[in-house]
Automatic annotation (TrEMBL):
Protein name stated in the entry: Putative glycosyltransferase
A molecular-function term among this protein's GO annotations: glycosyltransferase activity
Keyword Transmembrane applies: yes
A Pfam family per the record: Glycos_transf_2
PANTHER family in UniProt: GLYCOSYLTRANSFERASE, GLYCOSYLTRANSFERASE EPSE-RELATED
Transmembrane spans: 244-263
Source organism, top-level taxon: Bacteria
Similarity field: Belongs to the glycosyltransferase 2 family.
């Protein structure tokens, strides 16, 4: 039976009840051949530690920690290296500390990857919750060629829904880029595309995705806008897929990151 390693980072900005929901949603998966690897990224509040201590004796969970906050990309990379060293896993699944995986998520993704051996990374749709601008179903393209084009102006995956074949990380250079702290997932997708890896999404909701004002704030600001535009421009040139239309879409995405929160809420509700 194929074995899944699930990677999740916890930091001081997390809420304990959200962390508990996320962990329990993994423990409640119908597919049972997995282990959840958690990295505590720097000092966290006592109430978060109390939640995590509840799971210390859980055989399906391994918890690691460090004294210094180094960010999401570094946390995920360290967990990937730990998992690779064990030589015991077929797939790596992402999970965020404030979302909820639905019980059939792993069953659906394992089944898909077994039937599609040419696909290296698979995600899914999600249900958003937590804000008036949340979407009942957030959809993304399904097939690789469409996702390859889509990535130039939008993110091809809902990050916490993805599952990778472990072989993706056989090359030690394939890790979350740490020089793009505001856009590490986007940078990884472009890196994988440039190396020829294949993407897909499952047309089912497999995760409840928390979205609120804080989510939009993290996607805002000058640094975020320029980080994403720089990555998209760079890879559009590298992939020899550039045009006035593509550049216009990239600029529009950059401008959106600079918009006031109220306007961004309207855009998120009406035009996603």
């Amino acid at each position: 039976m194929d074995k899944i390693a699930v990677i999740m980072s916890v930091y001081n900005g997390d809420l304990p009840q959200n962390v508990e929901l996320a962990i329990d949603s993994i423990l409640n998966q119908r597919y049972k051949n997995y282990k959840l690897f958690i990295m505590i990224d720097g000092p966290v509040a006592q109430n978060i530690l109390m939640i995590l201590r509840k799971y210390e004796q859980e055989p399906a969970i391994e918890i690691y920690s460090r004294d210094i906050n180094k960010g999401l990309a570094t946390s995920l990379n360290e967990l990937i290296d730990i998992i690779k060293s064990k030589n015991d896993y077929n797939f790596i699944a992402r999970m965020d500390s404030d979302d909820e995986s639905l019980p059939d998520r792993f069953c659906e993704q394992i089944n898909y990857l077994q039937k599609a051996p040419h696909i290296d990374v698979v995600g899914s749709f999600c249900h958003e919750f937590g804000a008036e601008f949340a979407l009942d179903i957030k959809r993304v393209p399904l097939e690789h060629e469409e996702l390859k084009k889509y990535t130039l102006y939008k993110c091809p995956f809902i990050h916490p829904t993805v599952m990778f074949r472990i072989s993706v990380f056989n090359d030690a250079q394939i890790r979350y880029p740490t020089n793009t702290k505001l856009s590490e997932d986007l940078a990884l997708w472009f890196l994988l595309l440039s190396r020829g890896y294949k993407f897909a999404n499952i047309d089912k909701v497999l995760l409840n995705y928390r979205i609120d004002d804080a989510t939009l704030s993290r996607r805002s600001g000058v640094k975020k806008a320029f980080s994403e535009m720089n990555i998209r421009f760079l890879y559009s040139l590298k992939m020899k897929n550039f045009s006035v239309f593509i550049y216009s879409l990239i600029l529009i995405r950059g401008v959106l990151a600079l918009c006031p929160l109220k306007l961004k809420k309207i855009v998120y509700k009406k035009f996603r």
